[in-house]
Amino acid sequence: MAATVIDGKAFAAKVRGQVAEHVDRLKSGHGITPGLAVVLVGSDPASEVYVRSKGKMTVEVGMKSFEHKLSADTSEKDLLDLIDKLNNDPEVHGILVQLPLPDHLDEDLVINSITPAKDVDGFHISNVGLLSTGQKSMVPCTPLGCLMMLRDHHGSISGMDAVVIGRSNIVGKPMAQLLLRDSATVTIAHSRTKDLPEVVRRADIVVAAVGRPEMVIGDWIKPGATVIDVGINRIERDGKTKLVGDADYESCAKVAGAITPVPGGVGPMTIACLLANTLTACCRANGLDEPEGLTA
Ligand SMILES: Nc1nc(=O)c2c([nH]1)NC[C@@H]1CN(c3ccc(C(=O)N[C@@H](CCC(=O)O)C(=O)O)cc3)C=[N+]21
């Protein structure tokens, strides 16, 4: 039987609609407009596309968007000065520094200079620590989007076997924390995992976040399992550029019970969750109730 396609694009539109309703209420009821600042250093074409799309959707849900584009040779001091300004700007509730940064900038130092309460990426060491100890934090957008789709599809994932392929700080590790918090049995696999296909075959939930185009194939998937494909890889095929995930869609969809497509799966949910996190940060900053269903 063919897998159910989990429509991340439609789900993301629904989430953005919910965010927009909350923003309306904040504006009319409290005179507060949530604001998101995005900082881009350098001019990577793919990054520019994402930043533009984030800015557009930020404005669409009624928030203020502050875009800061800095040249590729920006000094660490200038970048830290800008972050300091944004940390202290009451109109800014969320700050995102687009990654990766140019080599001469210390990514950890830069991320950890963002006020944790405004760290809508959830990458600050304080937020990482809070998440892993089950305390209130900002949760990384991509794993949060994956969790929302899993909860929506399964109702509960309690007791299910989940295998996360990939151990990055931005996806693999926080994803594992979120799955664990929802009482799944979690394995983190990676490029050195012994007999990866056999490990993946045990999973009811497979989260593919390795960054290798179409690496996970249908033969590795337990019949009926849910495949969440985090990969976004641009490849050349038949003389055309094509966007593919870390899972081989065609073969996986034949075996899986449900699967997220690329594009139109995890990617749009990531941006929707960025807006949801900005809303959450704004509510917390103003001592207001947090939006229900939009946090982890
Ligand atoms: N601090 C930081 N936070 C990020 O969240 C962050 C980042 N840096 N650096 C770059 C990556 C990449 N990223 C994407 C978000 C949405 C889509 C997305 O919506 N993709 C569409 C397709 C877009 C296309 O056609 O190229 C889709 O999958 O359907 C993709 C990629 C966020 N990132």
From TrEMBL:
Keywords: Amino-acid biosynthesis, Histidine biosynthesis, Hydrolase, Methionine biosynthesis, Multifunctional enzyme, NADP, One-carbon metabolism, Oxidoreductase, Purine biosynthesis. CDD domains: NAD_bind_m-THF_DH_Cyclohyd. Its EC number is 1.5.1.5, 3.5.4.9. Residues 140-284 form the Tetrahydrofolate dehydrogenase/cyclohydrolase NAD(P)-binding domain. Residues 6-121 form the Tetrahydrofolate dehydrogenase/cyclohydrolase catalytic domain. GO terms for molecular function: methenyltetrahydrofolate cyclohydrolase activity; methylenetetrahydrofolate dehydrogenase (NADP+) activity. One of its GO terms (cellular component) is cytosol. NADP(+) binds at residues 166-168, 232. Belongs to the tetrahydrofolate dehydrogenase/cyclohydrolase family. Homodimer. NCBIfam families: PRK10792.1 (NF008058), PRK14186.1 (NF010783), PRK14188.1 (NF010785). This is Bifunctional protein FolD. It comes from Pontibaca methylaminivorans. The gene is folD.
